[in-house]
């Protein structure tokens, strides 16, 4: 990348301009999705700013239970949740919201309703804040087909019905990765402009990767195919080099690296968590949607992840996602195990 030339670029593709360009390809479009996305982007900017100040605020005593104005200080994940709920409701384009932080779905009041359902994890990996590890927001968007009173059925749909998904990673830079079902694009926040600029156009995951990402602390509880795959990564039978283990423990950061460099990200079912640990609606589905649109695959150990039909808003599922050929290898191991049974 020519950074010197980049510094003098004046024709910047911002995320708003990018989405408006896409919108112009559909004459029937009313701009609702663009407005909704603008509100999500605003939420991401707010949370990014709060994350950046989190350590400092704690250091200089601004994060007590009650601050000097008598206002209650909120934990960052609770704050992030409030930010996104308010941003999404005020867009006037949503009818039902599902958040990782709330036990029940939020039905938007009739005067502020629109055609979209948004499922989101406002701050994924928030336990990593204190040690400065990258964390992020994950979201998925469904569209309600008919005008009717919103119900849980509007969000309890397979992931393949999503119209868009993405995540925003708060790390060394603030990166927003988005797919509307036609490819995947990455945007980086330029703090001097306060705008997300297109920096990773048309992301394609390598067909095969050199990295695997899994919590090996759970190895004693794994099923046969998972253990066999990880053994193959470490001790390849075909004479190829061993794969490198990279595990951050923050889903957004691990998936972001997998998307750019290839390989596999795994959170399998095990004896401790027979249904897996990651939540279907706002973790598994959005990341699987992005992975497939970048040319990769997402698999649960039994089926394509996006074909799952959740029965509750906080359902969990095992997940293997990443490079096409690597996931094919995992699928073959599960198929072989199935034949033995």
Concise description?
This protein is an alpha+beta fold and 341 residues long. Helices cover 32% and strands 22% of the residues. It contains eight helices and 15 strands.
Question: What does this protein look like?
Answer:
By secondary structure, the chain is an alpha+beta fold. It has helices at about 5, 15-25, 30-60, 75-90, 225-235, 250-260, 280-295, 325-340, and strands spanning about 95-100, 105, 115-125, 135-145, 165-170, 175-180, 185-190, 195-200, 210-215, 245, 265, 280, 295-300, 315, 320. The protein has two domains: about 15-200, Fructose-1,6-Bisphosphatase, subunit A, domain 1 (Fructose-1,6-Bisphosphatase, Chain A, domain 1, 2-Layer Sandwich), CATH 3.30.540.10; about 210-340, D-Maltodextrin-Binding Protein, domain 2 (3-Layer(aba) Sandwich). The strands form three sheets. It has an eight-stranded mixed β-sheet, sandwiched between helices. A five-stranded mixed β-sheet has the order 10-9-11-15-13, with helices on both faces. Helix 3 (about 30-60) runs antiparallel to helix 4 and helix 5 packs across helix 8 (about 325-340). The chain starts with a helix and ends with a helix. Residues about 60-70 have low confidence and may be disordered.
């Amino acid at each position: 990348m020519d950074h010197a030339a980049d510094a003098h670029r004046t024709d910047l593709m911002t995320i708003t301009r990018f989405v408006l360009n896409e919108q112009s390809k559909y004459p029937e479009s009313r701009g609702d999705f663009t407005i909704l996305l603008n509100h999500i982007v605003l939420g991401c900017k707010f949370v990014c700013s709060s994350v950046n100040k989190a350590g400092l605020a704690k250091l200089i005593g601004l994060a007590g239970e009650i601050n000097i104005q008598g206002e209650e200080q909120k934990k960052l994940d609770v704050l992030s949740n409030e930010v996104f709920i308010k941003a999404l409701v005020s867009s006037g384009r949503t009818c039902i919201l599902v958040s990782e932080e709330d036990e029940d779905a939020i039905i938007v009041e009739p005067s502020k309703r629109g055609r979209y359902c948004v499922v989101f994890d406002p701050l994924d990996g928030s336990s990593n804040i204190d040690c400065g590890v990258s964390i992020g927001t994950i979201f998925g968007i469904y569209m309600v087909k008919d005008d009717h009173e919103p119900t849980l059925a509007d969000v309890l749909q397979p992931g393949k019905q999503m119209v868009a998904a993405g995540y925003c990673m708060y790390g060394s830079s603030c990166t927003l990765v988005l797919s509307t079902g036609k490819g995947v694009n990455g945007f980086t926040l330029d703090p001097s402009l306060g705008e997300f600029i297109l920096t990773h156009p048309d992301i394609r995951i390598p067909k095969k990767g050199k990295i695997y990402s899994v919590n090996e602390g759970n190895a004693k509880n794994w099923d046969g195919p998972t253990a066999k795959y990880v053994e193959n990564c470490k001790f390849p039978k075909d004479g190829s080099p061993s794969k490198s283990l990279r595990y951050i423990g923050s889903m957004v950061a691990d998936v972001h690296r997998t998307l750019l460099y290839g390989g596999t990200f795994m959170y399998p079912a095990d004896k401790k968590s027979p249904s897996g640990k990651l939540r279907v609606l706002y973790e598994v589905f959005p990341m699987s949607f992005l992975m497939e649109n970048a040319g990769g695959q997402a698999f649960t150990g039994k089926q394509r992840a996006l074909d799952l039909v959740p029965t509750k808003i906080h359902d969990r599922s095992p997940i293997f996602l990443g490079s096409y050929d690597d996931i094919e290898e995992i699928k073959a191991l599960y198929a072989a195990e199935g034949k033995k049974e």
